[in-house]
Design a protein that fits this description.
The chain is an alpha/beta fold.
């Protein structure tokens, strides 16, 4: 069965050219010169996709986009324009457009965009759902799938295991599950399993009842108990020692904990959400992670897509982080032009959303003037070139390590070698940063001297 494409453009030659191209690709095509005729046709039949000009004579294409979406919320609509800007692309994306094409149109780009948009829309058809609190930015099919999984998980008390590379938003996703659940009015506690020395980990997690030198009992409430009736997020779960994994499993199964030095069990009602960026199956094979704990945690698995698999969200994310940086740093307003946005979109993003946020902040601070251009973006991304080259060769493991090394070095330089400020900027504990510096062979002293 042939796919039906509707074209709305007030330029007759554009409509004619697109019709010839698409009919040669075995599409059925109907074209329209005004919004009224398009809406009349839509009331009778749903096409596979609509190509919609931003301005149709004096008609606003974004208004027509709204009307189309009222009829068919999941209908893929691709906007076309001769005056593309990031603001226009962002507004179109917010209103539901799946992509944005600039005139003069590239035949290859048009065909590729149509094929991809139709395929992605098929994958993104979900039952209608609404999150009470939606902090996850993006409208791509892959991120919509994540939001739907959050919605499903929030309806239950089941344990959730979140998988994803660094910078994909595991903490944000865990918090979103809590904020949309019946436990939203109760505590939400985060515990990074890589943040504390081994000897302190159990006390931090389960608390302690230790007798001091003055023979008074010193009681400390651990993270698990702090989360009573709420949610405990165990980040980097694969970094737990095997002995502590055993105690975590027992607490999950028994719904009871024991403080270090304590003699009584304490009943707990806590929802557990765990996360990792490690290969869990490999960790189990190597004997570093308990298989029974994996099964206990993996009731609802939730995999977060890397940014390179959700390119159409980059415009939304770039606008959000640009506005955020301008506000936080009290900077004059700036915009990113279309070429700059294209450069951002074509980057591999080994550091995912976290890398994008830092690049945008760097651009907002360092670029003079009101417009961020492609050359500015390329210069900001230059520090990650070596990692990208290794990824292109398929050496993903070393590329990730190199990116992480460059990323930490750049952040240290920005923070003038101050480890405390750097750890805050990176969003990790200072002790965890020190371990990273050692493992990646980074010398703070040499950086400062250099």
């Amino acid at each position: 069965m042939q796919k039906l494409i509707y074209i709305l453009d007030d330029e007759k030659e554009i409509r004619k050219t697109l019709r010839v191209i698409l009919e040669d690709e075995d599409y059925t095509v109907e074209d329209f010169s005004n919004g009224k005729s398009l809406m009349k046709a839509l009331s009778k039949e749903r096409p596979s996709l609509v190509l919609l000009d931003v301005w149709v004579g004096k008609e606003d294409g974004l208004t027509i986009l709204d009307e189309c979406k009222k009829l068919y919320p999941s209908l893929p609509i691709v906007m076309i324009s001769g005056h593309g800007t990031i603001e226009l692309a962002v507004n179109a994306t917010k209103k539901g457009a799946v992509d944005f094409l600039e005139k003069p149109l590239s035949i290859e780009k048009v065909i590729q965009t149509i094929e991809t948009s139709i395929e992605k829309t098929k994958e993104s058809d979900f039952p209608k759902f609404q999150l009470d609190v939606d902090e996850i930015l993006g409208e791509s099919p892959s991120i919509t799938r994540v939001k739907f999984a959050v919605f499903q998980a929030a309806e239950t008390n089941a344990r959730v295991f979140i998988y994803g590379e660094n910078g994909t938003g595991k903490e944000l996703t865990a918090r979103s599950i809590h904020l949309n659940s019946k436990r939203k009015g109760e505590p939400y506690i985060e515990f990074n399993c890589a943040s504390f020395p081994e000897e302190n980990m159990e006390q931090e997690l389960f608390g302690s009842e230790l007798v001091s030198q003055s023979e008074t009992q010193d009681v400390k409430i651990g993270k698990w108990e702090q989360a009573q009736n709420g949610t405990l997020f165990l980040d980097e779960i694969c970094d737990l020692s095997l002995s502590l994994q055993s105690k975590v499993l027992k607490a999950i199964l028994d719904q009871k904990i024991e403080r270090v030095g304590g003699k009584e069990s304490i009943s707990v009602d806590v929802r557990i959400i765990a996360a990792t960026n490690s290969n869990v199956e490999e960790a189990i094979r190597e004997g570093k992670f308990r298989e029974d704990l994996f099964y206990a945690l993996n009731v609802i698995p939730l995999e977060l897509p890397p940014l390179r698999e959700r390119n159409q969200d980059i415009a939304l994310l770039a606008e959000f982080y640009l506005k955020k940086s301008i506000s936080e740093n009290q900077l004059p307003n700036k915009t990113i032009d279309r070429d700059g946005l294209d450069t951002l979109t074509s980057h591999f993003w080994p550091g995912n959303v976290r890398e994008l946020a830092n690049i945008i902040e760097r651009l907002s601070i360092l670029v003079p003037g009101e417009t961020i251009r492609a050359k500015d973006v390329k210069e900001a991304l230059h520090g990650f070139k070596k990692a990208n080259e290794m990824v292109a060769r398929g050496d993903l493991k070393h590329a990730k390590e190199e990116f992480e090394r460059q990323y930490i070095i750049k952040t240290l330089q920005i923070c003038e070698g101050n480890v405390t400020r750097t750890s805050k900027a990176l969003g990790i504990e200072r002790t965890h940063l020190y371990r990273k510096l050692r493992s990646l062979n980074i010398s703070v002293d040499q950086l400062i001297e250099g």
